[in-house]
Write a structure and sequence with these properties.
7-stranded mixed beta sheet; Rossmann fold; about 425 residues; Dihydrodipicolinate Reductase, domain 2; 17 strands; alpha/beta; 6-stranded parallel beta sheet; binds NADP nicotinamide-adenine-dinucleotide phosphate
């Protein structure tokens, strides 16, 4: 039996969904008893060249052709952004159509409203493709690992920044040069701010934390630092102390308090996340029963993302057959989110200081007064009366670190604090 599907958008992801749905139609029919057929596709521009040759699928610019078509039971949204995607999804759910979306921007901010509308209308909404492209993350957290108390979710979830940091590490080039090259190659948007300022990773962390910690988590509760300030010097010093710099999205739960941070982090080369390069994504998960798990794979691209979308489609078809929705229950546990209370971590600091006797003793005194002990100190590149000092501290709480930084800023012989980044522990 055919099951009719309306597709919203036919760009990178939408094109992949058309191709993969066709390629797997027979297998899906064998598994679910229904053959998926995309009948209508909503776009803006009917004349535009599509990434896939269309056959029986009908392109339209009229929303009503899809939302008011009673035979269409499933809507796949691949438009992106908040509007019109949000209104279209809510209308589809109210019209009792199941929805699959790849839209992290929308789910991170309006996920609760969308899930609630789906529940009220007895239909499903699935969004595996919104985080990590091809990598199954949502379903393992929602289903396979539910028996665990998840204490840590830590990952590389933005391909653009990972590509830029990988290239900076390989070539020794500075951020601006690598960003320009990434834009020319199409790996970074012409406006790269959502990626390089960490917001895309923060949206994905919001979704992962909501599901992994079963908590109400808001995007504005994530403390976000992007990668614009990471320099070639930081990358080189990190390497000298056995680390690479990665933009880590990290969520942890300790004693019912959740902390959520996205920030450039020094990752020891022995850590599995250090080897996740270029456009790949990875998520490290720690559960009290399962122990440590690592999910790794292609975080974006047409077919990798379509793999997750069509996986959701198969789940929807199974649920239609069973007469269930399969939605994540809306019950969320009440937990405190305080991202300033992240656990003590080692920190990397790069400072310019006056090159004269006694300066180092003063810095050591400041750290001592804030109860921060130093693990490694490198003194480098003496020039124009200044020296560059790189310090790696032992584990330090955010409060201790802030107190040491304030005292360093007030110290006359400290000319500038260039970088402050956490250092991940080798074992995760
Ligand atoms: N690209 C990836 O690798 C990737 C990975 C994971 C998740 N995602 C998510 O997947 C979604 C789609 O991304 P994409 O890269 O496929 O985007 P894209 O290539 O820009 O495609 C967007 C499509 O949506 C259509 N569209 C945009 N605004 C519309 C409107 N107002 N009305 C009707 N159609 C409209 C466009 O139509 P026209 O072609 O006629 O302009 C286009 O076909 C986003 O939420 C994105 O975050 C993407």
């Amino acid at each position: 039996m055919d099951l009719q599907i309306g597709l919203l958008g036919c760009g990178t992801v939408g094109g992949g969904v058309v191709e993969l749905t066709r390629r797997r139609a027979e297998k899906i029919e064998a598994i679910t008893g229904r053959r998926p057929v995309i009948t209508h596709i909503l776009v803006r521009d009917l004349a535009k060249q599509r990434p896939v040759a269309l056959e029986h699928e009908q392109l339209t610019t009229r929303v009503a052709d899809i939302l008011e078509e009673p035979n269409i039971q499933v809507i796949i949204e691949t438009i992106g952004g908040i509007e019109p995607a949000k209104s279209l999804i809510l209308s589809a759910l109210k019209a009792k159509k199941h929805v699959i979306t790849a839209n992290k921007d929308l789910i991170a901010v309006h996920g609760a409203e969308i899930l609630e509308t789906a529940e009220q209308n007895g239909v499903s909404v699935f969004f595996e493709a919104a985080v990590g492209g091809a990598i199954p993350l949502i379903r393992p957290l929602k289903e396979s690992l539910t028996a665990n108390a998840i204490s840590d979710l830590k990952g590389i979830v933005n391909g653009t920044t990972n590509y830029i940091l990988s290239k900076m590490t390989e070539t020794g080039a500075d951020f601006d040069d690598v960003l320009k090259e990434a834009q020319e190659l199409g790996y970074a948007e012409s406006d790269p701010s959502s990626d390089v300022d960490g917001l895309d990773a923060a949206r994905k962390l919001t979704i992962l934390a909501t599901i992994g910690f079963h908590a109400k988590v808001r995007l504005d509760e994530v403390i976000v630092t992007g990668i614009r300030a990471v320099t070639a010097a930081d990358v080189a010093y990190a390497s000298e102390i056995g680390c690479v710099i990665k933009l880590l999205a990290a969520g942890s739960e300790r004693d019912g308090v959740i902390s959520l941070n996205v920030r450039p982090t020094l990752v020891p080369k022995a850590h599995p996340l250090a080897h996740v390069s270029d456009a790949y994504n990875a998520l490290f998960v720690r559960g009290d029963a399962a122990g440590d798990l690592m999910f790794f794979g292609r975080g974006a691209g047409s077919l990798p993302t379509a793999s997750a979308v069509v996986g959701d489609l198969i789940e929807v078809l199974r649920n239609i057959e069973l007469g269930v929705s399969g939605n994540e229950p809306l019950i969320r546990l009440q937990k405190v989110v305080n991202s300033k209370l992240s656990e003590p971590l080692k920190h990397y600091l790069r400072l310019s200081v006056e090159d004269k006797p006694g300066v180092f003793a003063k810095i050591a005194g400041i750290f001592g007064d804030s109860d921060v002990s130093m693990e490694t100190v490198l003194q480098k590149r003496v020039k124009q009366g200044g020296a560059e000092v790189v310090i790696v501290t032992h584990e330090v709480s955010p409060v201790q670190l802030e107190s040491a930084l304030l005292a360093l800023q007030a110290e006359q012989s400290v000319q500038e604090i260039h970088s402050v980044m956490p250092v991940e522990v080798a074992g995760g």
